[in-house]
Write a sequence for this structure.
C-alpha cells in the first residue's frame, strides 16, 4: 500500500466516522484530517526532534511512535517495537477542544 492508497482508505473511513461513528470514534476525525491534509514529511527531507511522538508511514500508517534518532522509531508503550523502514512522518495533531 502506498501513501495515496492509505489516504483514500482514511478518506472513506473519515466520512463514515462523520456520518455513522460513535462519539468516541469522532475524536479520530482531527487526526485523520491532519493526515489527509498532506502533512506528511519525508524522512529524507527532515527528521523529527529526538523523543518526539509521531504518526509514521512505512507501507501502513501507525501512530504512537517516538523518534530515537538515526531513522529509528520505537512504540510509546514499552519500546518493544522498533521501526526502521519509515519513509514519512508527521507530528501528532493538537488535542481536541473540550
Amino acid at each position: 500500500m502506498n501513501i495515496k492508497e492509505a489516504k483514500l482508505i482514511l478518506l472513506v473511513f473519515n466520512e463514515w466516522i462523520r456520518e455513522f461513528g460513535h462519539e468516541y470514534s469522532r475524536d479520530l476525525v482531527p487526526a485523520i484530517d491532519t493526515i489527509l491534509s498532506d502533512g506528511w514529511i519525508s524522512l529524507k527531507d527532515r527528521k523529527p526532534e529526538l523523543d518526539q511522538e509521531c504518526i509514521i508511514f512505512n507501507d501502513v500508517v501507525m501512530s504512537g511512535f517516538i523518534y530515537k534518532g538515526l531513522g529509528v522509531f520505537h512504540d510509546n508503550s514499552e519500546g518493544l517495537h522498533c521501526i526502521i523502514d519509515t519513509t514519512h512522518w508527521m507530528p501528532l495533531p493538537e488535542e481536541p477542544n473540550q
User: Anything to note?
Assistant: The two ends are 35 Å apart (CA to CA). Residues 3-91 form one domain. The CA atoms of residues 19 and 26 lie 10 Å apart.
